[in-house]
Structure formats: structure tokens, C-alpha cells
Amino acid sequence: MWELSHACHCPLVGVGLPLGGLRKLVEKVTGGKVLHDDYDIHVGTVSECALRTPVADAVQKELERRYAQHVQRFRAAKTTEQVEAMWDAAVAAGDVAGAFWAGLSHPRCTTALEEKMCRDIHMVQHQAGACARADINKFNAVVADNARLEREVARLQERCNALGLEKAQESERLENQLRAARAATIARDGDVQALRAELARLQASVPDLESRERLAERVAQMEAREQALRVQLAELKAVRTPAPAPEADVAAPAPIQVAPVATPVRLENRSVLCVGGRSSSVPIYRNMIERVGAQFAHHDGGLEDSSSQLDASLAAADLVICQTGCISHSAYWRVKDHCKRHGKRCVFVDNPSVSSLVRGLQEASTEDQPG
To answer: Can you say how many angstroms the Cα of residue 299 is from the centroid of all Cα atoms in its chain?
Structure first.
């Protein structure tokens, strides 16, 4: 170590030994803790290496120990050119610390090669410094970017916490609404059960409730029939009331022309229901029926009159004349079914005209005559 030129000591100590290892080495040699900074320790060690001192011996041994493999590899070089070639390869590979000590300590290392190696290591140190500065700049940029990302993460975390709190509150509100709805449903079901029990109790307290309901419905039907009969009676009285004598200067209306009808014996004081027919022919029908001593009733077959009145009219009639061309299908089947169930005479007339009605009355008169 001390046989090298003084120009080699600075780069050899600086590159070959890390600062932490150099401080421990000096403290071990001096037997105490070194309070100087790294620069002072480096300068002092370089000065000690100019002569064979305890520090120089310690540095010599540490370099031999640390770079024993490099020294062993460089021993294969037998000439100065081979040593130089191995050095150039180490510089190209970036492995200069061990190669620098192995090359300088090789027996074939000349003064020129030593100077070349010092120049190369100087430039390597410049490049390393530039790389270190670039790395520091990159590191600082990474640190700044990391700080920005940390702030962004903190902001997002705060937003997530706020959203989580909001969702928790919304969930709690919906849970409260669900519990209230369930309670209301349970209360409503209880009310329904109570009302059903009350209804069953009331039904049990009223004997023969269903029979009374059927009787009430029957009474309503009888009242409807009575009302229909009253209307028919009023119409009959209105027709039989004689009209006032016309004045001399007013022409009397032409009498209604009615075809002669053979009087059916069994139609006197009977009720005849005419179902269907033209509304303009109803007065003629009435006059014709009443001329044979019967009571006239009319139902239009469900065109305008209520269908519920048809049952009452059928029940009050002794003879039914059904003009099938002027009634609904429903009224036709109701008339036919009623007359069949009650054994009531029913004459079906296809053509809604006065002559067809006359033929129907004649047919009913003929069938009523004994054979």
C-alpha cells in the first residue's frame, strides 16, 4: 500500500473502502471512537498510507481480505498487457473497486499502467457522481410524486369514509322504515283478525241470517213486480179514460184501424204480456188486447226497458206473446225458460206487425177452445 504513488492512495481508499467500514477500521486501530467526520477520516487515512503505519497495515489487510477473489483472478495475467486488458474489462463491466486494488498490487503493473488506472478511476468517479446526481433527482421526483399520491389517497380515503357514513345512515333509515312497515302490517293483520272474529260473532248472534237475506231479496222482487203492475194499471186507466169531445172547427183524429179478432174465450180478465215489437205499434197492440177483455202489458225485450223488469212482467202475465224479431237473445231465452218452467202459454211471432199479433191471438184462442 505505502509503495504506491501518493496519487493512488486517495482513489484507492475512496473506492475500495466504504465510509462506514473505514470508520470502524480506524476506530479499531486507534482503540477509541473517532469523532471526526467522514471527510477528515478519509484525508487522515490517505496521509497514513504514504508510510507503513498501523493504519496503512490495517488498510492493506482489509483490501486483501475484501478483494481476495479479484487478486486471485488477476494473478493469471503474466504480462502488463494482460493486466491492462483485465482492467479494461472490469471498467466496462462496472466492477472497478476490486480490480483497481488487484491491478495496482500486481507485480506486472508499471508506472504508466498505474497512471492510466488512476485516470480511468477518476473518470469513473465523475460518471458515478453524475449518475448519483441523476438518481438523486429521480429520487426527489419520486418522493414528490409519492407525496402527491399520498395526498390523493388521503383525499380519496376521506371521500370513501364520507360515502360509507352516508350509506350507513341511508341503510339505517331504510331499516327503520322496514321495521315500521312490518309493525304496521302486523297491526293491520291483528285488526283484520279482530274484525273477522267480530263478524263471526255477529253472524252467530243473528239466527237464520241466510234465510232472512233470501226473504229480503224475495220481498224486493215482489215490490218490483207490484210497481210494474201499478204502472200497467195506470196505463190501462189512461187508455180507458174517454177523450174530450173535439170542437166543431177541429178535425177529429182518424181512428186506429185494428183488424177484427176472434175473441179468445179464456183471455177475458187475463193479463197478456207482449214482449218486443215496434214502439209505434204499442198503442195498437194495447187497443187490440183490451178489446178482447184482457189486460195489456208490454216489455221491449231489453232494448230500453230494464232486464230486471222482465221477470216481474213475466210472473204477472197469464199469456205471453213474444215477437222474436225485435228482442235480444238474452230476453228470448229468458222468456222461453220462464214459460217452460211455469207451464205458461207463450206464442212466438216472427214478424213484428199488427197482422202477426192478430194471428197470434187467434192461435191462442183456437188452442184454448175445446177440441
So the answer is: 59
Entry pTM: 0.35
pLDDT in tens, 278-301: 777 788 888 888 887 788 888 887
Q: Cα Rg for the chain, rounded, in angstroms?
A: 67
* SS3 (DSSP) at 171: helix
Q: What are the start-end ranges of the H helices in the chain?
A: 6-16, 19-30, 38-48, 54-66, 68-74, 80-93, 97-104, 111-205, 209-240, 282-291, 307-316, 329-342, 354-368
pLDDT tens for residues 41-61?
888 888 889 888 899 899 989
CA distance 351 to 311: 23
Calculate the dihedral angle through the C-alpha atoms of 354, 359, 362, 366, rounding to the nearest 10 degrees: -170
The amino acid occupying position 183 is A
**How big is the chain, counted in residues?**
371
Grid cell locating 123? 473518470
Which residue, among 75, 78, 45, has the nearest Cα to 59 in the 3D structure?
A: 45
Do β-strands 295-299 and 345-349 pair in parallel, antiparallel, or remain unpaired? unpaired
Hey, what's the cell of 365? 184462442
